[in-house]
Amino acid sequence: MTATSEQTSARTRPYDRPQVGIWLAVVQPDNLIGFAQAAEAAGCDSLWVPEHLIWPQELTSSYPYRVDGGPPVPSDVLLYDPWVLLAATATATTRIKLGTCVYVLPLRDPLVTARAVATLDVVSGGRAILGAGLGWMREEFDAVGIDFKSRGERCDEIVPALRSLWSDELTSAEGKHINFPPLYFNPKPPQGASLPIVFGGESNAALRRAARLGDGWLGTWHDVRVHPRGHPAAGGAARRARASRRTVRDHRHDQPPDHVRRAHRTTMGGRRGPHLHRLTPRAPAPVARHPRPPRTHHHPARL
């Protein structure tokens, strides 16, 4: 599954201006639509919603982005399905891109994720972005019966499955964690296999994952600075992007050492929000291939 040259060019074409996004961490559903419409009218480029499936009564996991490891929100935090929120937003906007920051990818069955993201992409006319993370809260994985330690391996199997489901006639998976027989998946999202998947995380492993599997990196808690060369840049995130170039140099042998592009043109959440860095195209991930059978009948109502 390889992106066409046109798709590749579209993904890596430099922006003619800084891209501005809004992290909707504190916006509630009753004012989400009005906020989104105002952001679009003001010229913002993207909206991002956070996500967790549950919040445990007793939390022992350490939050990695606080020095004391304490939770980032109170235990009675209001949690919503991000794809429902973004689909509602899509119906009231026309241009602004819609993403998650971040969706705990290995917590879900890839077929469920593929359907939710594809539906948003259809409803929005090709504006969906899957902002993904591995998750830091062991209790979330315990609640659904998934081994917390397997989340990295699960993610490695989920991403190529998603891209195949979004573009190939038939898809199957035969992995250690993800398995399903050959199946059809329709409708395809307008962006197909080029639908952006960007990864969060600050560790070296997270940077390697973004470079190896994703279209970009969502840095966390960086200040927006001006790059010494005069280009708009996220200072802390730019340093992490340079570090990622060193980190992945020995990790990914199918790409030149500078395969991580400095892509500091999108910032989210203002001074204290995450920042998006775009990467050059990945090498195509291995996916199951199936010959396309002759189609003589089509029953759109048969689900």
Percent range for helical residues? 25-40%
Structural class from helices and strands?
A: alpha/beta
Enumerate the strands of the largest sheet in spatial order, edge to edge or round the barrel.
1-2-3-5-8-9-13-12
Q: Low-confidence parts lasting 5 or more residues at pLDDT below 50?
A: 1-14, 226-235, 248-275, 279-286, 291-303
Order of helices and strands: HEHEHEEHEHHEEEHEEEHEE
The number of helical segments is 8
Calculate the terminal CA-CA distance, rounded to whole Å: 26 Å
Q: How is the biggest beta sheet arranged?
A: 8 strands, mixed, barrel
Mean pLDDT: 78
Query: What's the quaternary structure here?
Result: single chain
Task: Find the CATH superfamily.
Answer: Luciferase-like domain
The name CATH uses for the topology is: TIM Barrel
What does this structure look like?
By secondary structure, the chain is α/β, with parallel strands linked by helices. The chain has a single domain, classed as TIM Barrel (Alpha-Beta Barrel). It is built from eight helices and 13 strands. The protein has helices spanning about 5-10, 30-40, 80-90, 110-125, 140-145, 150-165, 205-215, 235-250, and strands at about 20-25, 45-50, 95-100, 105, 130-135, 170-175, 180-185, 195-200, 215-220, 225, 230-235, 265-270, 275-280. Helix 3 (about 80-90) packs parallel to helix 4, helix 4 packs across helix 6 (about 150-165) and helix 7 crosses helix 8 (about 235-250). The radius of gyration is 19 Å and the shape is globular. Residues about 1-15, about 225-235, about 250-275, about 280-285 and about 290-303 have low confidence and may be disordered.
